[in-house]
Amino acid sequence: MSFMFHPYPYKDLNAVNAVAPRDTVVEGALPVARRIAALFGEGCRTVGLDGYAGTEFDVLYQLLAAQLQPRGVRIVRTEALLLPPETLRERLRDSLPEDRSLDPVLLYGVRVPRQYEDLFCPDALETLSRDLRGEEKLLVLGRGALCQTLRGLYGCRIWADITPRTAALNYKYGKAHNFGEPAALPFGAMMRRNYYVDFELAVELRWTLLRQEALDWYMAADDMAHPSLLPYGELRSLFDELCAKPLRCRPVYLEGVWGGFYLKRLRNLPREMKNCAWVFDMIPMEVSLAAVWPGHEIEVPFFTFVQQQGAKLLGRPAYDAFGGYFPVRFNYDDTFHSSGNMSIQCHPDADWVVKQHGELGRQDESYYVCVAGQGACTYLGFEGENDCEAFFAAAEKAQETGETIDYKRYVHAVPSKPGTQVMIPAGTIHASGHNQVILEIGSLTVGSYTYKLYDYQRIDPQTGQPRPIHLAAGRKVIHPERTARWVTENLVNHGGVKRRGEGYEERIVGEHALLYFALHTETFDRVIEDDTRDRFHVLALTEGEQVRIESAADPARHFVANYLDVIVVPADLGPYRIVNLGQGPVTVHKTCLKDDFETCAK
Q: Is residue 201 pLDDT above 70, yes or no?
């Protein structure tokens, strides 16, 4: 998995969830602006309008100014409250360290522990607070408008939300820049600050507002030519309906230097895409959720839904253990008919990533092989006991000389065939090989920490520069004892039959003491029954054409999934069944939390 710096500008219209019609939604730029302006004639003297990082507040200002100025409403932009840029940079320095020995291109950082008040001038904040207590009609617009200091001073509070895909594209296309920076930073530096500061501040504030139910209106603002505005109570009702049945997120698609073509063809992605390396099908912090009814669509960040639904979605044990975060992430990696392998890499364990990056826990992964072409394999572990040091020595020399190395001499290859499941505990050297499609399932990290150890001397097409290598950081977290023998005994197809009956079998295909999630397959002819037991499930149809996932109590609460769709089954659903709608037996891959997940390393 990678940071989502360059999502392809494409909205998958097939990934939607049908809901009942809503008649309180205001749609369109002018109707939304007029509805907000009307609040001042309905008893509101002060309105706060905040939003996610990357929201087009300049466009919002233009729309609202035309409606509010004739009504005698003054608009205050929160940029006017900010500390001077140099003071802000100094205040945020700890979140954006510059140690190029460990992070050569300054990709990583430390999740910011601050809040918006730390970015504002105290005197300016006090002056605005005093004005909000006065008699003047005021709209406070921009990031931080609903910070704790100001939140209780408004007659009406609005949150403008955009999906992570749109946020990244708005920054890329110059529609937004980092809060408090007078001009756009170089794109890599801008997105690094976003992930460790801007996005973090917005996510935490939105979470507070949802937990406290401190919103009156919610705006879906991806498309500022056609935003949607709805009362917060309507949003809550919409989310309740979505959480009462299985659902599918809207994926994000990304090109890459090792990208393949299987999923591009399967999902009929735009012809202009060079390839499709990653499909972020259900990475909770990066994907969205689209609710549709005839002629209408509302698209929201999936993590907004997670934050608002909480234990109903996750289950109470998971909600308590992971602090409300969705603890597992899912994406496809496609090297089918591509030009080569994924980089040889490793990920950090908790001791490193929590201390270095302020993260929530270790970065474990797993690969399930969905499609395998000729010669496909997954690289996992070192061949022998002495190969770790030999590999690092060869890779370090290659960094200096630009030569390629015989990586197969050091790194063990596991032959791939559909149904192969490998577990990748943090610190294990690994890579997806050429000519396969894998379902990657990983643990909870807000960011993404892929320490590339060797990348075949490739050039990154996005930057025109060699792809960054993190040998020094990799040495800090690598586990040299994970050799071919250990990998075979512990990490490949590790499990057994869980239950079987007439026409069905459920197998555990991946489980390890270090990982808190378990990986199963359910193979059946016509139907199989299951039960969430107050823990979410995530399903992927890996063999077969189509299935219907339905509530056992109310089959009308269902989702029809096609081949390789990734479906979330909310914990609240309880007993459910999966019905085969195609010909021949099907296999559904299931991810769930282990029975003892609270005791596992996180």
A: yes
Structure tokens at 528: 């199989």
Residue with tokens 């209408």: 296
pTM exceeding 0.85: yes
Residue 428: which of 451, 402, 454 has the closest Cα? 451
CA distance 511 to 498: 12
186's tokens: 């170089």
Helix 302-309 to helix 232-242 angle (10° resolution) is 90
In whole angstroms, how large is the CA radius of gyration of the chain? 25
pLDDT one-digit tens code per residue, 387-409: 999 999 999 999 999 999 999 99
From the number of C-beta atoms within 10 Å of its C-beta (0-12, 13-18, 19+), residue 167 rates as buried
Q: Of 200, 160, 158, 162, give the one whose Cα is nearest residue 300.
A: 162
Long-range contacts of 186-189 (CB under 8 A, 24+ apart): 187/5, 188/5, 188/105, 188/106, 188/107, 188/463, 189/106
- C-alpha atoms less than 13 angstroms from C-alpha of 259 in its C-beta half-sphere: 19
Q: How far apart are CA 602 and CA 597, in angstroms?
A: 9
Q: Exposed, middle or buried, 401 (CB in 10 Å: 0-12/13-18/19+)? A: exposed
The residues with which 329 forms a beta bridge, in sequence order, are 442
Residues 128-181: pLDDT tens digits?
Answer: 999 999 999 999 999 999 999 999 999 999 999 999 999 999 999 999 999 999
DSSP character at residue 492? B
* C-alpha span between 564 and 560 (Å, rounded): 12
390-398: long-range pairs with CB below 8 Å, 24+ = 391/429, 391/453, 391/454, 392/453, 392/471, 392/474, 392/475, 392/478, 395/453, 395/454, 395/469, 395/471, 396/471, 398/454, 398/457
Q: Which residues contact 133 (CB under 8 A, 6 or more apart)?
A: 153
Rounded to whole angstroms, how far apart are CA atoms 47 and 33? 13
From the list 400, 387, 451, the residue with the least C-alpha distance to 424 is: 451
Number of H helices, E strands in the chain: 17, 31
pLDDT digits (tens, 9 = 90+) for 62-114: 999 999 999 999 999 999 999 999 999 999 999 999 999 999 999 999 999 99
Bridge partners of 589? Answer: 521, 540
Cβ-contact 457, 473 below 8 angstroms: no
pLDDT band, very low/low/confident/very high, at 370 (cuts 50, 70, 90): very high
Measure Cα distances from 363 to 119, 134, 268 in Å.
31, 51, 32
Quick check: 2 pLDDT over 80?
no
| Ordered domains of the chain (ranges, CATH) | 17-242 (3.40.50), 252-284+326-490 (2.60.120.10), 498-599 (2.60.120.10)
**The tokens of 258 are what?**
């090792």
Contacts for 68 with CB less than 8 Å, ≥ 6 apart: 37, 40, 75, 139
CB of 592 within 8 A of CB of 520? yes
**β-strand 26-27 against 228-231: which pairing, if any?**
antiparallel
